[in-house]
Amino acid sequence: GESVGLHLPTLSVQEGDNSIINCAYSNSASDYFIWYKQESGKGPQFIIDIRSNMDKRQGQRVTVLLNKTVKHLSLQIAATQPGDSAVYFCAEELSGGYNKLIFGAGTRLAVHP
Amino acid sequence: ETGVTQSPTHLIKTRGQQVTLRCSSQSGHNTVSWYQQALGQGPQFIFQYYREEENGRGNFPPRFSGLQFPNYSSELNVNALELDDSALYLCASSLRQGANEQFFGPGTRLTVL
Questions:
Q1: Closest alpha carbon within chain A to B53
Q2: pLDDT of res. A27
């Protein structure tokens, strides 16, 4: 079936440490994956994306890794800051006429000073 | 460039009532998608509108319906409200049908009593 799930519901890190948030997806036909950050009372905010023909993509302080063999996605945040505290969602996009995002339940990242 | 806006911010209704939520897409975006996000969960795709027509639908009953207007703004209508309809309703716009990146609005928090 269609599902995108996350391994860890809550992740606590110290400020300055690196964070890794993991995600498993089930649809091998998906060709686009996105990480969103959602702060309390706000809509999801795009962080970084990756297409299925890539296995790594880097942004500013963030890196997304895609392992299609095991259908696994991860988000790495370098030098985590208090402003990174939020819920992070991975989403899988099924194309084919329209774009439907399938979200996981989310991982809450708590950054401690 | 104006981002995605939604109205109202919060809304309280009672069971059996009807509700209309509104969304203005980001400037230049012609595709709008609606998502329902229950508390503590990831967003669930309701449907997508392109050129004023629904062109994709998730697993939601017919009492969830929508409209898209010539200026690409959109409405989500829910009839015969149920308690389980209480959620954050998110609108997302994208540059065109098939464009991957979707930009989310802040959402409308609907409470059904």
A1: A98
A2: 86
**Residues B87-106: tens digit of each pLDDT:** 999 999 988 766 678 899 99
In degrees and rounded to multiples of 5, residue B85 shows phi and psi of -80, -10
Averaged pLDDT of chain B: 93
CA–CA distance, A53 with B7 (Å, rounded to integer): 38
Q: Report yes or no: A97 at the B interface, CB cutoff 8 Å.
A: yes
Looking at residue A41, the DSSP 8-state letter turns out to be T
DSSP result, chain B: ----EEE-SEEEE-TT--EEEEEEPPTT--EEEEEEE-TTS--EEEEEEETTEEEEE-S--TTEEEEE-TTS-EEEEE-S--GGG-EEEEEEEESSTT----EE---EEEEE-
Q: Does A43 touch chain B (CB under 8 A)?
A: yes
Contact by Cβ (8 Å): A76, A62:
yes
Q: What is the pLDDT of residue A26?
A: 79
Structure tokens at B32: 């709008």
